[in-house]
Amino acid sequence: MATFTPTLASFSLVGKTAVITGGARGLGLAMSKALALSGANLAIVDLNKDEAAKQAKTISSIFQQKHPNQQVPKVTAHYADVSSKSDVDTSISEVLAEHAKITNLITCAGFCENRDAISFPSHRVKRMLGVNVEGTYYYATGIAKHMIDQQIAGNMVFIGSISGSIVNVPQRQALYNASKAAVRHLAASLAVEWASHGIRVNCLSPGYMLTKIAMQENPGLKAEWESKIPLKKMGAPEELMGTVAFLSSDASAYITGQEIRVDGGYTVC
Ligand SMILES: NC(=O)c1ccc[n+]([C@@H]2O[C@H](COP(=O)([O-])OP(=O)(O)OC[C@H]3O[C@@H](n4cnc5c(N)ncnc54)[C@H](O)[C@@H]3O)[C@@H](O)[C@H]2O)c1
């Protein structure tokens, strides 16, 4: 017999349709699972559409296994380079052709590059700001337009980073830090601008998370980071699932313009 695990109904995402950028891999993939397993229909938008399509199938079958007699959320995969406004607009139209409405957005596509500021090539400067900042902006504004036109009281969660509030050491990543500060303040600013439309916007800022990419880029730093984290370990991607589901749900109905840091206590020291 299935275990009875009561929880507040306001935590459920049944009836919602979420778009997640960068949802095919890493932290975005864990968040994609959190949204669909909470009942939301989902559109995964990623540079790597093949991986997004593969993960969409996997997520649907995980849901089916967990809830054999329930309606399986519709999970679709789409291509966009989020730094391209025309890609973003095309992908939003594609999502709307398959899902009819969008109630939630999670912007997770982004990347970090560790280099000293003086030697950072200008084409990489443009790329980083293009993906991390413009990508968030294009997606948020494109989807807010849809929400306002359709009178949808929508919800957005931008994935920032603790690097948007503190300066990480020893790695040199000034532009990444600045890009994530921009993401955090964009969330606060758009939350105020769109509050009268019922659209909430918050920023989820992960700390040091244990992903393959983070470890490839910073080999050897795990022990040093962990020694400085009060919970004494780097975060697992799955440890973001509850926070993204909470912020995307009506359980957080009176929270907007805020940043929640999921960092094992790192930034309070
Ligand atoms: N990994 C960490 O420790 C950490 C910590 C704090 C914040 N973050 C943030 O979390 C987010 C995800 O990080 P991750 O470590 O899971 O990265 P990742 O590289 O593992 O995954 C990123 C995903 O985004 C997609 N993507 C990248 N650029 C894109 C673009 N231009 N258009 C569309 N899709 C694109 C990739 O294809 C990939 O599927 C990033 O915004 C990152 O800055 C990560």
From TrEMBL:
<protein>
    <recommendedName>
        <fullName>NADP-dependent mannitol dehydrogenase</fullName>
        <ecNumber>1.1.1.138</ecNumber>
    </recommendedName>
</protein>
<dbReference type="Pfam" id="PF13561">
    <property type="entry name" value="adh_short_C2"/>
</dbReference>
<dbReference type="GO" id="GO:0050085">
    <property type="term" value="F:mannitol 2-dehydrogenase (NADP+) activity"/>
</dbReference>
<keyword id="KW-0560">Oxidoreductase</keyword>
<dbReference type="GO" id="GO:0019594">
    <property type="term" value="P:mannitol metabolic process"/>
</dbReference>
<dbReference type="InterPro" id="IPR020904">
    <property type="entry name" value="Sc_DH/Rdtase_CS"/>
</dbReference>
<keyword id="KW-0521">NADP</keyword>
<comment type="similarity">
    <text>Belongs to the short-chain dehydrogenases/reductases (SDR) family.</text>
</comment>
<dbReference type="InterPro" id="IPR002347">
    <property type="entry name" value="SDR_fam"/>
</dbReference>
<dbReference type="InterPro" id="IPR036291">
    <property type="entry name" value="NAD(P)-bd_dom_sf"/>
</dbReference>
<dbReference type="GO" id="GO:0050664">
    <property type="term" value="F:oxidoreductase activity, acting on NAD(P)H, oxygen as acceptor"/>
</dbReference>
